[in-house]
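Schema walkthrough. Field components (list of strings):
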Amino acid sequence: MMKFQGSHILSVSQFDRESVARILDVAKRMIPYASRQKRCNVLEGAILNNLFFEPSTRTRVSFGTAFQLLGGFVHETVGQESSSLTKGESLFDTARVISGYADIVAMRHPAMHSVAEFAEGSTVPVINGGDGANEHPTQALLDLFTIEAEMNRFNKNIDDLNIVLMGDLKHGRTVHSLSKLLSLYNNIHLTLVSPKELQMPDHVVSALDNAGHKVTITDSMVGNLQSDVLYQTRIQEERFASKGEADMYRGHFSLNKSVYEQHCKDNTVIMHPLPRDSRPEANELDVDLNDNNNLAIFRQAQNGVLVRMALFALALGVEDKLSQYEREVTWFSSKGN
Amino acid sequence: MMKFQGSHILSVSQFDRESVARILDVAKRMIPYASRQKRCNVLEGAILNNLFFEPSTRTRVSFGTAFQLLGGFVHETVGQESSSLTKGESLFDTARVISGYADIVAMRHPAMHSVAEFAEGSTVPVINGGDGANEHPTQALLDLFTIEAEMNRFNKNIDDLNIVLMGDLKHGRTVHSLSKLLSLYNNIHLTLVSPKELQMPDHVVSALDNAGHKVTITDSMVGNLQSDVLYQTRIQEERFASKGEADMYRGHFSLNKSVYEQHCKDNTVIMHPLPRDSRPEANELDVDLNDNNNLAIFRQAQNGVLVRMALFALALGVEDKLSQYEREVTWFSSKGN
Amino acid sequence: MMKFQGSHILSVSQFDRESVARILDVAKRMIPYASRQKRCNVLEGAILNNLFFEPSTRTRVSFGTAFQLLGGFVHETVGQESSSLTKGESLFDTARVISGYADIVAMRHPAMHSVAEFAEGSTVPVINGGDGANEHPTQALLDLFTIEAEMNRFNKNIDDLNIVLMGDLKHGRTVHSLSKLLSLYNNIHLTLVSPKELQMPDHVVSALDNAGHKVTITDSMVGNLQSDVLYQTRIQEERFASKGEADMYRGHFSLNKSVYEQHCKDNTVIMHPLPRDSRPEANELDVDLNDNNNLAIFRQAQNGVLVRMALFALALGVEDKLSQYEREVTWFSSKGN
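Field assembly_structure (string):
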């Protein structure tokens, strides 16, 4: 198992199965604090530097909240504000200075490998919140946490599952990173549903093969959605030469109540990294599934807080002190209900 | 009286007189904390999500400070940063995710009714910080609080007052919302001074009539400013077809020391929602009144913190625990003096 | 000595030698908290309004962190967001309102003297974080702190030092303010190395002369770098008529390992206000000096936090209560090592 205390979290490739299990276990312990049955102030006085050189409200707020839920202070930088970077300052210099102002750093940046480069100069642990097309490890971890949590309702584990990944599997770093994590588990049947032009890259498929999983590649939903989990991603219009070309794919892989009832199992769990396009013409993941309890997309988003709390706790070595710093919640909350 | 605990604050129309009295009463209890005679940490560990999809330094900082004055953490989003919204995400989805990251939300958004739409998806209380031309309920409440506080100096109440509203009464949501709240009180004489083209909308005047108030509509200041309160608003240049047209109105309704001494009572209290245009050519509310103690505009702005503290406390059900969470102020402050 | 409690910090001209010594002394007491041997929550519940009307990641984060390291809340405004200012609101009005929302204000603004104008309207202490080409007093103080701290390693004081200031000495407010502070000390030999066109302004040189210091003005590095401290600043391309003209100077005053070994003393301490241009063509301060322990540039940046903590503590009158509010650090940190 990797040593978490004092370590950077840059890539899903850092993890073996035991390390992932450890993260998910600590994340589970965060539920009472996130749902406000208790609060925890183990990080009182600690400072998170939340550096979002590329905007992302959802991920930024989730990181910041996670740290505050452990009692810590958050200090944020949003956007390519930093005139320093345009004056030729290296990421090493930026890191050496900025990391001195914090106990831990969460960072998103549009350039591939930029977060690792920053980590080289940092004097404190750095957590990758997304570095361009490269990695978004906390998203992969929250996806895995969600699969495990949802399957627990049916007394299943990640091993032996049937999982469908559907949509643009070529460009989505989300499904690539999740696939890498799934490679750590046993005997999964993965069905990859996408247009031929948007298939999962070979190296990801190979990794799944090598892990001993069964992989089915198809461009048709028919007969292929009888799974435990159906993970839907966007057909990303901006990836195509023209809107017309994108529209050809639209609707071929959209999910709504009728498709679900016709093609899925009774309890197929639906996941989506969000945001989803809710406009009627989007044909992506229809709002008519909102009252289906197997739609896990909002629980999935909430799990992001748990996983990020866990990573903060592990990197700062407080994961076994949580109960010692529990406090009563003094205000009204309906979250735990 | 409305139930505050767990409730959204979206519109002044939610309130009956008893509810308003309750808010103002709780706001009054906040004075020792805002003036730093004591501090209060009843919301220690709680998280406010301060969502300003439209910039507004004054209102944003006031909400954030109010929450910090009760001991809570603030997490902010400023500007239409959220790429999610441009990718077609519904306000319902945004709310369902973001509200999961907070104990309470304050929100400003340029679109009418957007805050109510957001509240539909939220799992925590939402306070409207302004939704376009629609509502700005906390401004109306702080205005009312200011009227009551200023009149208390003269042993008067809101009932039976003489109040002048002056300026652009057609477009200002501020004076509309305040008028709605005044409709809950008794026997007020409201004098509405504006250019004919910028008169108060009929439905607002009708509501005042129906409440049994006396309403005088005029386009002249002469003889009409002998009031307890004179509430001045901007002639908003951007509302007119041309700058020339706007300039026609400029100065006709401007207030300065000479106008005040000639037309007002000895103790007419001057209010203004701020910001005021202080440039010499503005002819709006002159700086030569700055040393007149009846100029209440800065006290009015400070009252915004008290009212927002009160709403946070009520929505989170801690309004009766404040004294239990009082602490000493450890640093030097001249605020209470 | 100046009275710090409740006072604004606007200019280095406010300080006599005793006041500077007091600030540096309090800054030194902050080391255990900044290096996480202990934490301090003497300002728990206090609110800093961090107003950066001009972006500056480094300075903004440093101010915010400094306040959080003393246990206080930070509320930030970044960029010329404030629509109020464009609607003609005076800095006096802005200050009167915004200062009411805080216990202390740190402010950067692009216009000269704007921070002093703001301070006129403020009801709480204001610390100047840079007002255009005018002043940046906290930078000068952290530079002085760094000189003292680095010289202490060699049992030297600021009096009697040999200091080289090199680069664009005409435009850099940093070296101007530092020179003003050095005028408070005794018997310094200052060597000012710059292109003839970018020499130190006469009034700064006169002040150094009047303080009894020895000043050498030169445009050559040769034979002039045998100093205790070498303070390097950027040749600022944007100051020149053309890039070609700027390039003429480039490299004439650049520092790298070979220059250092050839021209400096064994233990000449290298300072730089940062950011530095790390691109190979920059020829400014080469990264090949990064492993030279006399390169003090990153310690210098960290000292900014200590100095800002000291100013907050002094302005809020808590500088003698720090040890009373010490707490254990609950998380893993390698900072103190």
